[in-house]
Amino acid sequence: MKRTEREESSAAESSAVVTDGAGVDWRGSASSSVTVTRAERLREFYEETVLKPMLVAWSDSRTRLGLLIIGFYVSLALVAVLGLWRAPSTSQAPRYLTLFENMQYPLGTTASGTDLAALIIHSTPDILLMVTSGGLWATGIAVLVGTVAGYKGGSVGRALMSISDFVMAIPGLPLVMILAITFNPKNPILLGIVININYWAGLGRSIHSQVLTIRENNYVEASRTMGVSTPRIILKDVIPNIMPYVTVNFVFAARYVVFASIGLFFLGVLPYSDQNWGVTLNFAYNGGALFSWSAAHWLLVPMAAIIGLSVGLILLGQGMDRVFNPRVRTRLTGESESTASADEKDTGMTEVL
Amino acid sequence: MSNYYVRRTARVFATIFAVATLTFGLIRLLPGGPFTQLRAQLLRQGVPASEVDARISNLQNIDPNAPLWRQYLDYMGAVAQGNFGESISLGEPVAQVIAEAVPWTVFVVLVSTILMFAVGIFLGSLQAYWEGSRFDKAFSGLSIGLMSVPFYVVAVISLYVFAYQWGWLPTAGTVGTNVDKELSVPFVLSALEHSLLPIFSYTLGGIGGQALAMRGNSIQVLGNDYVRVARLRGLPDRRIATRYVARNAILPMYTGFLLLLGFRLSGTVILEQIFSYTGLGYYMFAALKANDYPLMMATFLIITVALIVGVYIADLTYSKIDPRISAGGSDEAY
């Protein structure tokens, strides 16, 4: 409740600033654009896009946890980039140390005497890059195809949807395997895109069906009669409506990248230059960690890294729903417990692992 | 209306045709091309160099010296007849390998997907029924936890614990080596024993997502006026729960079920590898490793066709199951 009051008062303040400067503010935007300084506009932009979403996100315990977890992985990546932890190399430590046996190597070591903590930390930057690029690619293409097809309709829409249907029909993992062997992408950004090469299709299809109803709204029709161009209508009238859905699905797409990439690294299909979580898992699996309890940590540590990241992503995805949902956002209360319920329905359209 | 069905059916064939074309192109992208491996292998076996090309075209139904369009036509013609050539690494006709592999994969995927939905729907509806209770909170957390565990992690851990450490279940294969491949009690028991771990690990991770979806749907349905009216009419709880709530909550998940069946087929590439379970995914991966292009193309095509048919059935039957949706939909261009 406290926050609600604060927000109202801040809203009142900002409107007061506008009216004070311009006298009677009956001409609306024309006069306000003169008086609002750049600093004020920046502050408002900051409040609208950073502060408020963060406040809403922080108010929910699950999202808070998600943010903390993702923050933890980002700081791991920073540790690796800044070189605060030793780089992994063979026989840098005694072999087969278990968890917390030697506090120099808290996560233990592998059969070749490599520090597991170093392995995990130093592959985090690449994995985060890959996850982000894969998620951006999948949601970006899906939004483009879904909104254009949904808004334009007719033969353009049909053509785009036929393409999506075709792409959706190609099995994801086998396709990625063939592409990985063919193009041998080692760059994590490229790898993220390759892994989600056809993820956008299902997402685009469900965005399409949402846009079909959005385009019937009055304000869209008003824009159309005013002669606003199609790209502008899509950008200003359509996309804000689907943003919550898109962000939630960005997170799910990112999770798919994590699962699929680690799975394929584990199989040894994807090319790699340094060991990462999946490759470590592969080495552990093939290196006999299955046969003895003493080497179990070699399997468990990379697994924990994967599960931790995806827990963070899922919690964040569920919280994103509130951040973007204007009704929840203005109330700032944690009333609707059934987060992401409306969005969860369509996840059947996209691939899962 | 019938026009829609005709168009939809035509699109199935168009998509299969397009994917077959795509696989033809993809194979030619791969390092070494489709014939290098086979040629080397034949030469190693002592086939005279002059006969190699003839042998290749005999095995793969494609003449390697013909122009590309000719190869394409030959390939498509052979695929249309269900003839995928001969597997390079196994030395058997691809169609036979696939015919032996498909039942195992279908069994695992079908059973695990059905189980996943059944358990998910059950848990989700209980959660919705007791929304906000401790049970609900605990299982929501559990669902999120389950969603975060990739199935291959479950697979490796369960293999480690149940098969290697405790030795309760077999570590690899589809049936025991000493069991005859015929429909008998020991065969079925052995098959079940071998499939237990793959099914378990493929089911567990998926339950979370389904439970959360079912929970969300049910809560939404519970808030509807017709449920309140049904209560006011004094209908028994059981009837409300099954006829009013469950039906409407499960409905949106139906399409997802058929699509998931298709998607999960491609996940078997990883699953079957871990358990050395000789199904479609296993052979797909083995073929990829061995540059066995005929086998790889065929498995790729089969998985694709399954997906396309799943989407097709979902599209066609959804309007039958949910009368509110009219098939086709009417688009008008802006």
TrEMBL record, chain B:
Keyword NADP: no
Alphabetical list of Pfam families matching this protein: BPD_transp_1 (PF00528)
Location of the protein in the cell: Cell membrane; Membrane
Ranges where the ABC transmembrane type-1 domain occurs: 102-314
Record protein name field: ABC-type dipeptide/oligopeptide/nickel transport system, permease component
UniProt keyword annotations, A-Z: Membrane, Transmembrane, Transmembrane helix, Transport
Record GO cellular component, one term: plasma membrane
Membrane topology recorded in Swiss-Prot or TrEMBL: Multi-pass membrane protein
Gene source species: Haloferax gibbonsii (strain ATCC 33959 / DSM 4427 / JCM 8863 / NBRC 102184 / NCIMB 2188 / Ma 2.38)
InterPro entries in the record: MetI-like (IPR000515), MetI-like_sf (IPR035906)
A biological process term (GO) from this entry: transmembrane transport
Transmembrane segments: 12-30, 104-126, 138-163, 183-205, 249-275, 295-314
Main location class: membrane
Family: Belongs to the binding-protein-dependent transport system permease family.
Gene3D superfamilies: MetI-like
Organism superkingdom: Archaea
